[in-house]
Specification:
Elements lengths: L3 E6 L2 H9 L8 E4 L11 E4 L1 H4 L9 H7 L4 E3 L3 H17 L3 E6 L2 E5 L7 H19 L3 E6 L2 H11 L4 E3 L5 H6 L11 H9 L5 H5 L3 H8 L1 H10 L15 E12 L2 H21 L2 E12 L4 E11 L2 H15 L6 E9 L2 E2 L12
Parallel strand pairs: 2-4, 7-8
Antiparallel strand pairs: 1-6, 1-7, 2-3, 5-6, 9-12, 10-11, 10-12, 10-13
Helix pairs in contact: 4-5, 10-11, 12-13
Bound molecules: thymidine-5'-triphosphate and magnesium ion (2 copies).
Amino acid sequence: MQIIMLIDMDYFFVACEELRRPEIKDKPTIVGSDPKQGEGRGVVMTCNYPARKFGVRSGMPISQAYRIKSDAIYIPMDYDLYEKISKDVMKVVKSFADRFEQVSVDEAFIDVSKKIKSYEDSLDYAKRIKDTIKEKTGLPCTIGISTNKLMAKMACEAGKPNGIRLVREEDVKEFLNGKELDDLYGIGKKTKEKLEAMGYKTIGELAKANTMDLMERFGSFGVEIQKYANGIDESKVEENYEVKSIGREKTFEKDTADRDTVTTAIRKLSDEVIGEVKKAGLTFKAVTVKLRYGDFTEHLKSRSIRRSDDAGDLASNAVDLYLRYSDKSRPMRKIGVRVSDLTKARGQKKIGEFTS
Ligand code: TTP
Ligand code: MG
Ligand code: MG
């Protein structure tokens, strides 16, 4: 039996803000663009549940949110904060997983089929994950548990907010049956309208639809959504790594145009970068140097090389990029060395293929 969980943080950006501004708790709060007294452009990134009660939603124009709830608390985005908290959350989630796949800043799938042998145990296990996230970050989440990624996602939606929701394999059909078409992952407003025009109103009806008709109307996408309507999803939880590149920088104590000083610094930085690369069990294919001059102008120079995890390869290419592309007459303030296009050393997929 396969047991998959989706962990998704509740009203994430606002919840992060709540940590440093406890006074906003339980008050309608919106993170997004400046509403400018209703004249503002841009959208609501997210809002807490008290704001949702009034009909405010993610993605809604901020001016519309302002019309609905002008006395809500409006907070601008602080992505650095959310990213930092996200890392803390993901660290916890990963520690509970056989396989871990982060799919956005606030959600991740885990496969726990090896660890958990029964649905009863999965509920206890989810509770432990939820409690640990709360303990380490102070934030609430919802966990959906089921037999594949699709159903874990749907279970999570149904369990929102601050819940744990299990949909057993034998209950999948009934769970999906009466739901609206656009409750199904993959079906948006347009597809819903087309399906309704064909006479299908619920997920249950789509599940039993004539497959040829769906093929004719939607091509292979039609087959896929019908599979989804039957709760079928064969995709696996794909291990990913949050690291897209690894780099180090050095600011010189005094701006310098001395070639040896810079070259020595590049070699040292290369060693440090390789230390990280090896620790993570990765190889790299792209090398970038950052050249920043005393007047703060900055240049990035990159090249692709044969895949490697070797300090000599990195240093020689980084030094070469510096020698070729830097302006030797101008004193440098800072130098940086970075590797990217990372892959697990044991020949697996490229990182960019996993992360959004
Ligand atoms: P979601 O998990 O979709 O939403 P949420 O965490 O705010 O609320 P819920 O309790 O329903 O899970 O998105 C996570 C964060 O990502 C959200 O706080 C804001 C941001 N976000 C975007 O950047 N773009 C989007 O289109 C959406 C929907 C959210
Ligand atoms: Mg969320
Ligand atoms: Mg999410």
